[in-house]
Design a protein that fits this description.
The chain has 2 domains: 165 residues, Glycogen Phosphorylase B (Rossmann fold); 167 residues, Rossmann fold. It is built from 13 helices and 13 strands. It is 38% helix and 17% strand. The strands form 2 sheets. The chain has a 7-stranded parallel β-sheet, with helices on both faces. Strands 10-9-8-11-12-13 form a 6-stranded parallel β-sheet, with helices on both faces. The chain is α/β, with parallel strands linked by helices. Helix 3 crosses helix 4 and helix 4 runs parallel beside helix 5.
């Protein structure tokens, strides 16, 4: 099948959405499809990166084409129309996109289209696009990243069950790396890989580093401004290490070098650009990358995470407000290597069965039938 993925993500960049786009293009190709990625030019992209495939750690098994995007209020609209026209000329069997407007334009001009949603739609003009798009002949399916999001789309917008499917996010099968030397030898190491936006749990990590002086906390990721803030705020702590931004292709080294990985999400979670609260619907790449690494996971006990993780089977889950439980959990995992290894092993087995990118792309394409 010839598939065109139309993205409006900033590529290359540090955003999770750009990682997900690149991984899905590779996954569609791994399922035997001919794939072309269309993406917009952006002044704010990581301009010093010359090879986007190497940067994201994906094989060059699909084509990519950067299209012009005018830098004004309507630039993205014009890009999405241009991308739809460009796609039409290439005669794909399917257009896949996380842009609702792109899905609308492509469906309107006779291209079979699938839209992947990561949050509910509230803005009236965008909602008009949705309600119009789902009635078009060439709109084929709505993919959502959690059962909670599927429930809300169906409850609020009456999307028929035959037109919507939950497909959680995924991760790569990790390569094996030699363990990194993370500063202090023979210390219990706790890792966090991801952004430091509001709601990601940096406040909880800071408190844990105070309570658990016997552990070293390694933080990988974050924008320059967030890193500057937390480095100054926690300068007095000697057991917390900020490694800064690491290219996506290199982060696995850090996950594999830690004893435990944590995902301390709060009740309200922001995304890049401050685009609202996604705590009810999110399907974080971090969780699947953690599972793939085979390391024990401690995560927040949120309903949406329980769609994937099972308490005391594939992870340890605690209420995000219960700092004492998190401290106890770290102590138990420190003192019980057998339990630590067992939880990590079961999480990895679950990942291999359900949550590879290739399996995700296959499930997406099955929605067409």
């Amino acid at each position: 099948m010839k598939i065109i993925y139309i993205s409006n993500s900033i590529i290359p960049s540090r955003t999770a959405n750009s990682i997900q786009v690149m991984k899905m293009c590779q996954a569609f190709a791994d399922n035997g499809n001919e794939v072309l990625l269309l993406y917009p030019s952006h002044i704010i992209s990581e301009s010093d990166i010359t090879n986007i495939y190497e940067y994201y750690g994906v094989r060059e098994c699909f084509q990519s084409l950067k299209l012009p995007c005018i830098k004004n209020k309507f630039g993205l609209y014009l890009y999405e129309i241009l991308a739809a026209i460009k796609a039409k000329k290439r005669l794909p069997q399917l257009v896949y996109t996380r842009s609702l407007r792109s899905c609308f334009f492509c469906s309107l001009i006779g291209l079979n289209s699938i839209y992947e949603a990561h949050k509910l739609i509230y803005k009236k003009i965008i909602l008009c696009f949705l309600l119009t798009t789902v009635k078009l002949k060439y709109f084929k399916h709505l993919i959502v990243i959690s059962d909670a999001l599927k429930q809300d789309f169906q409850g609020q917008y009456n999307i028929p069950n035959c037109k919507i499917t939950t497909v959680h996010d995924a991760a790569d099968e990790p390569r094996q790396y030699e363990k990194l030397k993370l500063d202090q030898p023979n210390r219990f190491t706790v890792g966090y890989v991801g952004h430091l936006y509001s709601g990601k749990g940096m406040e909880l990590i800071a408190e844990l580093s105070i309570r658990c002086s016997w552990a070293d906390f390694h933080i990988v990721g974050g924008t320059n401004s967030d890193l500057d803030y937390w480095r100054v705020k926690l300068d007095h702590l000697k057991n917390i290490y900020f490694h800064g931004f690491i290219p996506p292709a290199e982060t696995e080294k850090y996950r594999q070098s830690c004893d435990v990985l944590i995902a301390p999400y709060q009740r309200h979670v922001s995304v890049f650009g401050g685009g609202g609260d996604v705590a009810r619907w999110m399907s974080p790449l971090k969780i699947f990358e953690y599972m793939a690494s085979g390391k024990a996971i401690i995560a927040s006990d949120l309903p949406v995470l329980r769609e994937v993780l099972i308490h005391e089977v594939t992870a340890i889950l605690y209420e995000p407000e219960d700092i004492e439980a998190w401290v106890t959990g770290l102590i138990n995992l420190r003192d019980n290597a057998k339990m630590r290894n067992s939880i990590g092993k079961r999480a990895r087995e679950e990942f291999k069965k359900k949550y590879t990118w290739k399996a995700r792309a296959e499930k997406v394409l099955q929605s067409l039938t």
